[in-house]
Amino acid sequence: MVQAPDRVMRKDSDGASVDGVPKSTNNIIMVRSLTEFRAGVTLGAGANGRVYKATHMPTGRNLAIKVVNVYDDAKRVQLLKELETLSTHVSRFLVRFFGAFYDGSGAVHIALEYMDRGSLEDTVRKFGPVPEPVMNHIAVHCLRGLRFLHRHHVLHRDFKTANILLSRALCRAKLSDFGLARDLQAGVSRADTFVGTVAYMSPERLKGETYTYAGDVWGLGVSLVECALGRYPFERPSSFFDYIDAAVNKPVLGPGMATGLSADARDFIAKCTHVDPKRRPTAAELLQHPWITKRPLDDRVFFKWLDEVSSSTRSTPKR
């Protein structure tokens, strides 16, 4: 990584402020080794490793530490891609990276920004539907993150609610988990590798066709419907072919679903989840959609909701 070629040199988001969202200068932490951490509770675990909370002793700041086994070939490939993307693409809408350290026993510990409200997936699962003004706020932040990645020819390829993290401290949603990201260099506009989470794959990806940045836009649309309904939008398919049938032949937001949504919100989601990828707008174009431009962001609304979903007194809805 130190001797990376020019094509992977660090790229920063533009300007000192993006539509009123300043750079998080207080998030800059210099981490030199694992000995600077005091390990805390486990935040989550999955097929790709575990994540634990840690305190950076020199600064007193909380970080999230992702642990990956480097002896697993597939995980090692994803690890290298994630480290490359994190270290070379810096945006206030992507989770910040502070360094990666080998522990001497077969695992790499990746030091990441601690997002104090966890994943959007966990929040929806626990608290149910997300109010439309909050959905709008999350959509704007996700679109800015996607626009930044796509401008620099990077596909996320695993866009889903589990990879959208929330921070009350920053009043922000950020994209995370870039282990499946793919660079599309000049002259290469499509990818054809079958990777990602099937439930959030676009129809063209499910059918094994080549795909573009429109696949990430589809993932955003499905994620927003999940927020609106408080659940995954399709009936849980029993086979891979059921996923294809649902994505191709059934509207993601069908009649009678989330009836309280505004017409602009429904149109926005319909455009994101159009079966034909050529008919899906880009992230930059979606930022000009009426659902975005006609709703000035009010951080107080988002902040209040982030407080509400962290309250231990709020009951979990029946599912």
Number of domains: 2
CATH architecture classification name of the largest domain: Orthogonal Bundle
Give the helices and strands as they follow along the chain: EEEEEEHEEEHHEEEEHHHHHHH
Question: Which structural class is indicated by helix and strand composition?
Answer: alpha+beta
Q: Within the CATH hierarchy, at the fold level, what is the topology of the largest domain?
A: Transferase(Phosphotransferase), domain 1
Give the CATH superfamily of the largest domain.
Answer: Transferase(Phosphotransferase) domain 1
Note down, in words, how this protein is organized.
- Belongs to the protein kinase superfamily. STE Ser/Thr protein kinase family. MAP kinase kinase subfamily.
- One of its GO terms (molecular function) is MAP kinase kinase activity.
- Keywords: ATP-binding, Kinase, Nucleotide-binding, Serine/threonine-protein kinase, Transferase.
- The protein has helices at residues 73-88, 120-127, 132-151, 203-206, 214-229, 240-249, 263-272, 283-286, 290-293, 299-309; strands spanning 11-12, 17-18, 21-22, 37-46, 49-56, 61-69, 89-90, 97-102, 107-113, 154-155, 164-167, 172-175, 182-183.
- It is of the alpha+beta class and 319 residues long.
- The chain folds into two domains: 34-113, 2-Layer Sandwich (Phosphorylase Kinase, domain 1); 120-309, Transferase(Phosphotransferase) domain 1 (Transferase(Phosphotransferase), domain 1), CATH 1.10.510.10.
- The strands form five sheets. The protein has a five-stranded antiparallel beta sheet with strand order 4-5-6-9-8, covered by helices on one side. It has a two-stranded parallel sheet with strand order 1-7. Strands 2-3 form a two-stranded antiparallel ribbon.
- A hairpin with a 4-residue loop joins strand 11 (164-167) and strand 12.
- Helix 3 (132-151) runs antiparallel to helix 5 (214-229) and helix 5 (214-229) crosses helix 7.
- It is globular and about 55 Å long.
- The termini are far apart.
- The model is unreliable at 1-9, 183-196 and 312-319 (pLDDT under 50).
